[in-house]
């Protein structure tokens, strides 16, 4: 061994987002001039730099290099002690590698973020938002969730009430909001509320949302019922006041004619039939039949009257796929603003565009083997404008809009009747978000909540 090394100090502490410096002293104990190259190794190597990266020493001389350790303020910099080392390789004798080791303790930090999905819920008797709690610190977090609102107009059922979240992970808390007073008639009312994430010894983190309570019966229906009641009362009063007085003179006529009576004339008109109750369901569409020999091309008209072939939708493709390969499948296609509908793709293939900046206005989805699917579109500025749209297996489900002036899609929510639905969404200006799946009985959200961005491409699996 022709090299002597020393780390000063051998143990140190560093804060995530900060930096600390350790001095490396080395002496050339050989008899030739040598150059030593430095290379950080170990779990802290990605965040370690050495200055200078190489040092040339004469025999019997000592040199110094500085190791700077700067872990980021992210969950990747796990709290606790970590070994670190520097590989020193002599140029003249590369086989004589020296690896001095030290110990670096990364201090813990906690940071919690929370977001309501969706931020606004609507309902007559309840609302069911989900609270996503993200642990972006480097140590485990235990937190509880509670709800409150001005005037104590809502009650809260939060499940689970307490969560433990590992660094870099997220937990979803389901909340059920119930109004303490039902609106029987009248317009909807907005009730702001707050879900607070509470940790021991830390100020609670509030997340604000809005519950839009709808009336049990719409206002126009209350007016219509009132008008019908008034008309009924008026009709009864007029009937009582102007009821016709009917008296029969049949007995008098018989007495005038004696004991002889006449049989009724056989030419008298028959009484009208009694009224029957009509069904309230709409009549079935009439069936049309072509004349024999007419053919599908319109005869000698050269095909001018032939019908255009129906467009290929997600339902036609998933039905054809299920016939060849029975089981769970999902097919879908995207409506690109300014371009129109794309061809349907299935089971993890991409629908949409990449790197073109094009916006998705609508999605067409169909499934097989999942007992149906339901979805909703999160659109620009209007957000959750439309209610959930649900269909059974093999039927087209449409969310969003293809109209020119309607808002484009920022994201979506989707689930299936049996099993799990998974999504991977591409948002403008970002990379693919990765495959994420819902839990049975829940739903999965994909895309962005930022009105400055938009949805560019999607992938689905079931």
TrEMBL record:
Composition bias type Low complexity, residue spans: 276-292
Pfam families, A to Z: ChW
Compositional bias annotation for Gly residues: 293-305
Residues spanning the membrane: 220-242
InterPro entries: ChW
Superkingdom field: Bacteria
Region annotated Disordered, chain positions: 258-311
Any one GO MF annotation of this record: hydrolase activity
Keywords: Hydrolase, Membrane, Transmembrane, Transmembrane helix
Name of the protein in question: Hydrolase
The species this protein was found in: Streptomyces tropicalis
